[in-house]
Protein backbone atom coordinates (compact mmCIF):
# COMPACT_ATOMS: atom_id res chain seq x y z
CA UNK A 1 0.00 0.00 0.00
CA UNK A 2 2.77 2.41 0.94
CA UNK A 3 4.46 2.01 -2.46
CA UNK A 4 1.24 3.04 -4.32
CA UNK A 5 0.73 6.30 -2.39
CA UNK A 6 1.08 9.54 -4.38
CA UNK A 7 3.56 12.13 -3.26
CA UNK A 8 2.71 15.84 -3.19
CA UNK A 9 4.75 16.32 -6.37
CA UNK A 10 2.72 13.61 -8.13
CA UNK A 11 -0.56 15.26 -7.06
CA UNK A 12 0.61 18.69 -8.28
CA UNK A 13 1.72 17.21 -11.61
CA UNK A 14 -1.66 15.48 -12.00
CA UNK A 15 -3.63 18.71 -11.46
CA UNK A 16 -1.34 20.62 -13.84
CA UNK A 17 -1.83 18.04 -16.59
CA UNK A 18 -5.62 18.17 -16.16
CA UNK A 19 -5.60 21.96 -16.31
CA UNK A 20 -3.49 21.88 -19.45
CA UNK A 21 -5.79 19.31 -21.05
CA UNK A 22 -8.85 21.41 -20.26
CA UNK A 23 -7.36 24.43 -21.98
CA UNK A 24 -6.78 22.61 -25.28
CA UNK A 25 -9.33 23.57 -27.89
CA UNK A 26 -10.78 26.39 -25.81
CA UNK A 27 -12.04 29.22 -28.01
CA UNK A 28 -10.24 32.53 -27.62
CA UNK A 29 -12.51 35.58 -27.61
CA UNK A 30 -11.46 38.51 -29.77
CA UNK A 31 -12.49 42.09 -29.24
CA UNK A 32 -14.78 43.51 -31.91
CA UNK A 33 -14.05 47.03 -33.04
CA UNK A 34 -17.44 48.65 -33.69
CA UNK A 35 -15.68 51.54 -35.41
CA UNK A 36 -14.88 49.16 -38.29
CA UNK A 37 -18.43 48.01 -38.91
CA UNK A 38 -18.33 49.71 -42.33
CA UNK A 39 -15.62 47.48 -43.77
CA UNK A 40 -16.01 46.69 -47.45
CA UNK A 41 -16.05 43.11 -48.83
CA UNK A 42 -12.89 41.24 -49.75
CA UNK A 43 -14.10 40.94 -53.36
CA UNK A 44 -14.10 44.73 -53.61
CA UNK A 45 -10.59 44.89 -52.13
CA UNK A 46 -9.43 42.48 -54.85
CA UNK A 47 -11.08 44.69 -57.46
CA UNK A 48 -9.29 47.74 -56.04
CA UNK A 49 -6.00 45.84 -56.24
CA UNK A 50 -6.67 45.15 -59.93
CA UNK A 51 -7.40 48.85 -60.54
CA UNK A 52 -4.20 49.97 -58.83
CA UNK A 53 -2.11 47.28 -60.52
CA UNK A 54 -3.13 48.96 -63.76
CA UNK A 55 -2.36 52.34 -62.21
CA UNK A 56 1.16 51.22 -61.21
CA UNK A 57 2.00 50.02 -64.73
CA UNK A 58 0.67 53.16 -66.38
CA UNK A 59 2.39 55.47 -63.89
CA UNK A 60 5.75 53.76 -64.47
CA UNK A 61 5.54 54.54 -68.18
CA UNK A 62 4.39 58.14 -67.65
CA UNK A 63 7.07 58.97 -65.06
CA UNK A 64 9.79 57.33 -67.14
CA UNK A 65 8.91 59.58 -70.08
CA UNK A 66 8.56 62.72 -67.93
CA UNK A 67 11.73 62.25 -65.87
CA UNK A 68 13.68 60.70 -68.77
CA UNK A 69 14.90 57.83 -66.66
CA UNK A 70 13.76 54.31 -65.92
CA UNK A 71 11.04 54.26 -63.26
CA UNK A 72 9.60 51.13 -61.66
CA UNK A 73 6.32 51.24 -59.73
CA UNK A 74 5.17 48.30 -57.59
CA UNK A 75 1.87 47.93 -55.76
CA UNK A 76 2.70 46.83 -52.21
CA UNK A 77 -0.62 46.54 -50.39
CA UNK A 78 -4.32 47.40 -50.43
CA UNK A 79 -5.92 47.28 -46.99
CA UNK A 80 -8.52 48.91 -44.78
CA UNK A 81 -7.45 51.14 -41.89
CA UNK A 82 -8.90 53.92 -39.82
CA UNK A 83 -7.77 57.37 -40.94
CA UNK A 84 -5.89 57.78 -37.64
CA UNK A 85 -3.93 54.56 -38.30
CA UNK A 86 -3.20 55.74 -41.84
CA UNK A 87 -1.77 59.11 -40.78
CA UNK A 88 0.20 57.56 -37.90
CA UNK A 89 2.15 55.43 -40.39
CA UNK A 90 3.26 58.45 -42.44
CA UNK A 91 6.60 60.21 -41.86
CA UNK A 92 6.72 63.75 -40.51
CA UNK A 93 7.26 66.08 -42.26
CA UNK A 94 6.17 64.69 -45.60
CA UNK A 95 4.49 65.75 -48.85
CA UNK A 96 0.71 65.36 -48.69
CA UNK A 97 -1.75 66.30 -51.41
CA UNK A 98 -5.40 66.60 -50.41
CA UNK A 99 -7.42 65.31 -53.36
CA UNK A 100 -10.94 66.17 -54.39
CA UNK A 101 -12.79 63.13 -55.71
CA UNK A 102 -15.38 64.16 -58.27
CA UNK A 103 -18.30 63.59 -58.66
CA UNK A 104 -18.43 62.49 -55.02
CA UNK A 105 -18.68 64.79 -52.04
CA UNK A 106 -15.48 63.82 -50.30
CA UNK A 107 -11.71 64.04 -50.18
CA UNK A 108 -8.84 61.58 -50.43
CA UNK A 109 -5.16 61.72 -49.51
CA UNK A 110 -2.00 61.16 -51.56
CA UNK A 111 1.31 61.12 -49.67
CA UNK A 112 4.73 61.14 -51.33
CA UNK A 113 7.67 60.29 -49.06
CA UNK A 114 10.40 62.98 -48.88
CA UNK A 115 12.93 60.24 -49.76
CA UNK A 116 11.21 60.14 -53.14
CA UNK A 117 9.91 63.68 -53.60
CA UNK A 118 13.22 65.56 -53.23
CA UNK A 119 15.20 63.36 -55.68
CA UNK A 120 12.37 63.83 -58.20
CA UNK A 121 12.61 67.61 -57.81
CA UNK A 122 16.40 67.44 -58.27
CA UNK A 123 15.95 65.48 -61.49
CA UNK A 124 13.39 68.00 -62.80
CA UNK A 125 15.88 70.79 -62.08
CA UNK A 126 18.55 69.04 -64.17
CA UNK A 127 20.37 67.22 -61.42
CA UNK A 128 20.46 63.95 -63.34
CA UNK A 129 20.59 60.68 -61.47
CA UNK A 130 20.55 61.46 -57.77
CA UNK A 131 21.36 59.17 -54.92
CA UNK A 132 18.88 58.85 -52.10
CA UNK A 133 18.59 62.15 -50.26
CA UNK A 134 17.92 62.27 -46.55
CA UNK A 135 16.00 65.52 -46.14
CA UNK A 136 14.29 66.31 -42.85
CA UNK A 137 12.60 69.61 -43.62
CA UNK A 138 9.39 70.98 -45.03
CA UNK A 139 9.15 71.68 -48.73
CA UNK A 140 9.48 75.28 -49.91
CA UNK A 141 6.78 76.95 -51.99
CA UNK A 142 8.91 76.75 -55.15
CA UNK A 143 9.64 73.06 -54.57
CA UNK A 144 5.94 72.44 -54.03
CA UNK A 145 5.08 74.13 -57.33
CA UNK A 146 7.66 71.97 -59.13
CA UNK A 147 6.28 68.85 -57.48
CA UNK A 148 2.74 69.81 -58.51
CA UNK A 149 3.65 69.08 -62.14
CA UNK A 150 4.43 65.51 -61.07
CA UNK A 151 1.22 65.29 -59.05
CA UNK A 152 -0.78 66.23 -62.15
CA UNK A 153 0.73 63.26 -64.01
CA UNK A 154 0.14 60.92 -61.07
CA UNK A 155 -3.51 61.95 -60.67
CA UNK A 156 -4.16 61.77 -64.42
CA UNK A 157 -2.97 58.15 -64.40
CA UNK A 158 -5.03 57.46 -61.27
CA UNK A 159 -8.19 58.86 -62.88
CA UNK A 160 -7.56 56.87 -66.07
CA UNK A 161 -7.14 53.63 -64.10
CA UNK A 162 -10.47 54.18 -62.37
CA UNK A 163 -12.22 54.58 -65.72
CA UNK A 164 -12.62 50.79 -65.82
CA UNK A 165 -15.00 51.15 -62.85
CA UNK A 166 -16.57 54.60 -63.18
CA UNK A 167 -15.79 58.15 -64.23
CA UNK A 168 -13.82 59.45 -61.24
CA UNK A 169 -11.68 62.58 -61.39
CA UNK A 170 -8.88 63.13 -58.84
CA UNK A 171 -7.57 66.70 -58.54
CA UNK A 172 -5.33 68.51 -56.03
CA UNK A 173 -7.36 70.51 -53.53
CA UNK A 174 -4.65 71.46 -51.05
CA UNK A 175 -1.30 70.58 -49.47
CA UNK A 176 -0.05 69.62 -46.03
CA UNK A 177 3.29 68.63 -44.53
CA UNK A 178 2.21 67.34 -41.12
CA UNK A 179 0.00 64.22 -41.27
CA UNK A 180 -1.25 64.88 -37.75
CA UNK A 181 -2.85 68.15 -38.87
CA UNK A 182 -5.00 66.55 -41.56
CA UNK A 183 -8.69 66.93 -40.71
CA UNK A 184 -10.39 66.32 -44.06
CA UNK A 185 -11.48 62.84 -42.90
CA UNK A 186 -12.70 61.95 -39.37
CA UNK A 187 -10.00 60.04 -37.40
CA UNK A 188 -12.13 56.92 -36.86
CA UNK A 189 -13.53 56.74 -40.39
CA UNK A 190 -12.46 53.68 -42.36
CA UNK A 191 -10.35 54.25 -45.45
CA UNK A 192 -8.75 52.06 -48.11
CA UNK A 193 -4.98 52.45 -47.91
CA UNK A 194 -3.02 51.79 -51.12
CA UNK A 195 0.75 51.58 -50.64
CA UNK A 196 2.97 51.82 -53.73
CA UNK A 197 6.76 51.73 -54.03
CA UNK A 198 8.41 53.91 -56.69
CA UNK A 199 12.00 53.20 -57.75
CA UNK A 200 14.01 55.55 -59.94
CA UNK A 201 17.76 55.76 -60.52
CA UNK A 202 19.44 54.89 -57.22
CA UNK A 203 16.60 55.86 -54.93
CA UNK A 204 13.20 54.57 -53.93
CA UNK A 205 10.34 55.66 -51.74
CA UNK A 206 6.71 55.06 -50.89
CA UNK A 207 3.58 56.69 -52.21
CA UNK A 208 0.46 56.17 -50.07
CA UNK A 209 -3.12 56.83 -51.13
CA UNK A 210 -6.04 56.93 -48.71
CA UNK A 211 -9.60 56.80 -50.08
CA UNK A 212 -12.62 56.82 -47.71
CA UNK A 213 -14.46 53.50 -47.62
CA UNK A 214 -17.73 55.43 -47.91
CA UNK A 215 -16.63 56.65 -51.35
CA UNK A 216 -15.64 53.15 -52.45
CA UNK A 217 -18.97 51.76 -51.23
CA UNK A 218 -20.84 54.12 -53.53
CA UNK A 219 -19.23 52.25 -56.43
CA UNK A 220 -19.97 48.77 -55.12
CA UNK A 221 -22.42 47.96 -57.92
CA UNK A 222 -19.87 49.12 -60.50
CA UNK A 223 -17.22 46.87 -58.97
CA UNK A 224 -19.61 43.90 -58.92
CA UNK A 225 -20.37 44.40 -62.62
CA UNK A 226 -16.71 44.66 -63.58
CA UNK A 227 -15.38 41.93 -61.28
CA UNK A 228 -18.22 39.56 -60.33
CA UNK A 229 -17.66 37.53 -57.19
CA UNK A 230 -16.01 34.20 -57.92
CA UNK A 231 -18.07 31.17 -56.95
CA UNK A 232 -16.10 28.12 -55.98
CA UNK A 233 -17.31 24.54 -55.77
CA UNK A 234 -17.01 23.23 -52.19
CA UNK A 235 -14.58 20.38 -51.62
CA UNK A 236 -15.69 16.98 -50.36
CA UNK A 237 -14.29 17.80 -46.93
CA UNK A 238 -16.25 21.09 -46.79
CA UNK A 239 -19.43 19.31 -47.88
CA UNK A 240 -18.93 16.64 -45.22
CA UNK A 241 -18.38 19.24 -42.48
CA UNK A 242 -21.51 21.10 -43.57
CA UNK A 243 -23.57 17.92 -43.48
CA UNK A 244 -22.17 17.09 -40.04
CA UNK A 245 -23.31 20.51 -38.79
CA UNK A 246 -26.86 20.29 -40.14
CA UNK A 247 -27.33 16.52 -39.75
CA UNK A 248 -28.94 16.89 -36.32
CA UNK A 249 -31.52 19.45 -37.45
CA UNK A 250 -35.22 18.55 -37.16
CA UNK A 251 -37.67 19.03 -40.05
CA UNK A 252 -41.46 18.68 -40.20
CA UNK A 253 -42.50 15.92 -42.62
CA UNK A 254 -46.14 15.77 -43.76
CA UNK A 255 -47.97 13.53 -46.24
CA UNK A 256 -50.77 15.42 -47.97
CA UNK A 257 -53.84 13.96 -49.67
CA UNK A 258 -55.27 16.30 -52.28
CA UNK A 259 -58.84 17.29 -51.34
CA UNK A 260 -61.74 18.64 -53.34
CA UNK A 261 -63.75 21.85 -53.29
CA UNK A 262 -66.64 22.09 -50.82
CA UNK A 263 -69.44 24.62 -50.52
CA UNK A 264 -69.30 26.81 -47.43
CA UNK A 265 -72.94 25.97 -46.64
CA UNK A 266 -72.18 22.24 -46.74
CA UNK A 267 -69.18 22.85 -44.49
CA UNK A 268 -71.43 24.46 -41.86
CA UNK A 269 -73.75 21.43 -41.90
CA UNK A 270 -71.00 18.88 -41.30
CA UNK A 271 -71.51 16.68 -38.27
CA UNK A 272 -70.03 13.58 -36.68
CA UNK A 273 -70.31 10.51 -38.89
CA UNK A 274 -70.41 12.36 -42.23
CA UNK A 275 -68.07 11.06 -44.92
CA UNK A 276 -66.01 13.39 -47.11
CA UNK A 277 -65.02 11.98 -50.47
CA UNK A 278 -61.68 13.11 -51.98
CA UNK A 279 -60.90 13.30 -55.67
CA UNK A 280 -57.70 11.34 -55.09
CA UNK A 281 -57.83 7.56 -55.50
CA UNK A 282 -56.25 5.31 -52.89
CA UNK A 283 -53.73 4.15 -55.49
CA UNK A 284 -52.69 7.70 -56.45
CA UNK A 285 -49.38 9.04 -55.05
CA UNK A 286 -49.46 11.58 -52.23
CA UNK A 287 -47.23 14.61 -51.75
CA UNK A 288 -44.60 14.69 -49.00
CA UNK A 289 -43.76 18.14 -47.65
CA UNK A 290 -40.61 19.17 -45.76
CA UNK A 291 -41.37 22.24 -43.66
CA UNK A 292 -44.34 22.95 -45.93
CA UNK A 293 -42.39 22.59 -49.20
CA UNK A 294 -43.26 19.67 -51.54
CA UNK A 295 -40.16 17.51 -51.97
CA UNK A 296 -41.27 13.91 -52.69
CA UNK A 297 -44.19 11.83 -53.93
CA UNK A 298 -45.08 8.38 -52.66
CA UNK A 299 -47.81 5.80 -52.01
CA UNK A 300 -49.67 5.16 -48.78
CA UNK A 301 -49.03 1.71 -47.30
CA UNK A 302 -49.01 -0.16 -44.00
CA UNK A 303 -45.81 -0.85 -42.09
CA UNK A 304 -45.84 -2.53 -38.69
CA UNK A 305 -49.56 -1.92 -38.30
CA UNK A 306 -49.18 1.82 -38.97
CA UNK A 307 -49.84 4.03 -41.94
CA UNK A 308 -46.65 4.78 -43.90
CA UNK A 309 -45.55 6.28 -47.21
CA UNK A 310 -43.27 4.59 -49.74
CA UNK A 311 -41.09 7.19 -51.52
CA UNK A 312 -41.39 6.89 -55.30
CA UNK A 313 -39.87 10.06 -56.72
CA UNK A 314 -38.44 13.47 -55.92
CA UNK A 315 -40.53 16.48 -56.86
CA UNK A 316 -38.73 18.17 -59.75
CA UNK A 317 -40.34 21.60 -59.39
CA UNK A 318 -38.69 22.31 -55.99
Report what the structure shows.
This protein has helices at 8-23, 42-67, 83-88, 114-124, 141-162, 213-217, 220-226, 236-246, 264-268; strands at residues 71-82, 95-102, 107-112, 169-176, 190-200, 203-212, 253-256, 286-290, 293-303, 306-314. The protein is of the alpha+beta class and 318 residues long. It has two domains: 34-226, Chemotaxis protein chec (3-Layer(aba) Sandwich); 252-257 and 282-318, no CATH class. The chain has a six-stranded antiparallel sheet. β8 and β9 (293-303) form a beta hairpin. α2 (42-67) packs across α5 and α2 packs across α7. It starts with 7 loop residues before the first helix and ends with a strand. The model has no long low-confidence stretch (mean pLDDT 80).
Helix content: 25-40%
Q: Indicate the proportion of strand residues.
A: 25-35%
Q: Report, as a whole number of angstroms, the end-to-end distance.
A: 72 Å
Question: Count of DSSP E strands?
Answer: 10
- Give the helix/strand class: alpha+beta
Strand order of the largest sheet: 1-5-6-3-2-4
The whole-angstrom Rg is: 35 Å
- Class of the largest domain in CATH? Alpha Beta
Mean pLDDT: 80
Task: Compute the number of structural domains.
Answer: 2
Labels describing this entry:
single chain, 318 residues, alpha+beta, Chemotaxis protein chec, 6-stranded antiparallel β-sheet, 9 helices, 34% helix
Write a brief caption for the model.
By secondary structure, this protein is an alpha+beta fold.
SSE topology sketch:
Blueprint: H1 8-23, H2 42-67, E1 71-82, H3 83-88, E2 95-102, E3 107-112, H4 114-124, H5 141-162, E4 169-176, E5 190-200, E6 203-212, H6 213-217, H7 220-226, H8 236-246, E7 253-256, H9 264-268, E8 286-290, E9 293-303, E10 306-314
